[in-house]
Amino acid sequence: MPAASSYLSIANMFFSDKEVKLIKEHNNIFVPVEDSSVASKDETSKKPETVSISSFTFPSYEDQFGELTIDDCQIKADLFFGDSWYVLGNGVGIYNGSAIPGYGRTILIAGHNNTYFNGLKHAKEGQIVKIRTNYGNYTYEITGMKITDNEDRSAYDLDKNEENLIMYTCYPFDTLGLTDLRAFIYAKYVSGPMIDKNS
Fold it and tell me: Hey, which residues does 164 pair with through a beta bridge?
């Protein structure tokens, strides 16, 4: 029966009068927030603005709630909450055990090495990562890169009480399929509203 079920599924696809959906649709809650004017040097030293957690729709698993751009790496990808196969087939995704931008913790974002995160092979210190969400816009500055084994849990710290961004993908960059190595690109917080979790 297991062998026959594959053939029956294919036959049903061609001979059934039902519409077949091969790709499910995701919930898109991303409504871009307008960028405020560029801050002066004096303003950048001030405490970042805050946004109330009750003032925006918190993403559910597999919701698209933003976009990630690295101009120097020619990366522009839809940003999802979660990192399922579906998510990574449609963009880049925040690992469910990490934080969202503005939460003051580690943001761990995955993407495929031969699609949305292929441009990370051009990542260099000082390049700017922009994340636009449905509640605010964020910038991070790349500080370094590390190539390590896929089992190396020391490559990230999800308990860090500091806003930081880590993007990761399979390595080498142009290899098809899963590999035993991962490339981690680290970035420090530069700007964007902090989420007030008590409001």
Answer: 106, 188
pLDDT band at 141 (very low <50, low <70, confident <90, very high): very high
Burial 166-181 (b: 16+ CB within 10 A, else e): bbbbbbebeeeeeeee
Contacts of 105 (CB under 8 A, 6+ apart): 98, 99, 158, 160, 161, 162, 163
Q: pTM value?
A: 0.81
Could you give the number of structural domains in the chain?
Answer: 1
Quote the pLDDT of residue 23: 53
CATH number, domain of 180, equals: 2.40.260.10
Q: Is residue 10 domain-resident?
A: no
Has residue 45 got a pLDDT over 70? no
The DSSP output letter for 54 is: G
Tokens of 87: 């998510």
Higher pLDDT, 118 or 42: 118
